[in-house]
């Protein structure tokens, strides 16, 4: 059996998974999604199963669609990448599954976005529907600032910036909870503490990872959230609130260097074992 790791930026995580697969004597090929050409009918040479680790949402999405069209098993699947890579789609699937999430609204013009503030109430968080590392998130506490942010976003080039995804701001500790899910198991969880002077908790922005132990009920919630988008290898981000744990986002190309450093759980090894197990089915 041969495993392909599809990537477009070679991060610590892809190298760790590659090393884990090699240590299991599994034939493994790193495939650069930016260089390799997806020719339908000639893709089976890449591998029997593909672990999609593309950082670019759209690159990974179109690669997954093409690979699956040729009958190749992809983790995470095209559908999971489509839903998990879009914050609005994710929120909708979580809501349909009855999973507690922050309240959200969506608008498609500046006027609509300002009207949406009345619906959800200040403060709010405005997010791009596609994006990672906390980029272009804005915490808005008053209408004047909101109007400035909305008008600025309206003139950004990608059309996706004209989709105003607005989420209630959760008054929480200066941290969130990230859980790593592989298959049907929550393999580890961490608190991600925001750096000083920052409300966002992303490790990429200087956030600090600390080991965290979830209750049985919280693990069930995390697994239910992953299942809602058919996620196989995902990071589920939750917020602590007065309403209990709320599922905020799900990452389908999850980074876990910080989680590994904080917990020493062999996350890469767990992912490698799962991919091999699925590849042999």
Could you outline the blueprint of secondary structure elements for this entry?
Blueprint: E1 2-7, H1 12-23, E2 27-32, E3 49-52, H2 57-69, E4 73-75, H3 78-84, H4 87-96, E5 104-107, H5 110-120, E6 124-127, E7 138-140, H6 143-154, E8 164-168, E9 175-182, E10 185-193, E11 208-212, H7 216-228, E12 233-241, E13 244-251, H8 257-263, H9 267-279
Parallel strand pairs: 1-2, 1-3, 3-4
Antiparallel strand pairs: 5-8, 6-7, 6-8, 9-10, 9-12, 10-11, 12-13
Could you please describe the fold and organization of this structure?
This protein has 281 residues and is α+β, with helices and mostly antiparallel strands. A five-stranded antiparallel β-sheet has the order 11-10-9-12-13, with helices on both faces. The chain has a four-stranded parallel β-sheet with strand order 2-1-3-4, sandwiched between helices. Strand 3, helix 2 and strand 4 form a beta-alpha-beta unit. The model has no long low-confidence stretch (mean pLDDT 94).
Notable characteristics:
281 residues, 4-stranded parallel beta sheet, 5-stranded antiparallel beta sheet, alpha+beta, 9 helices
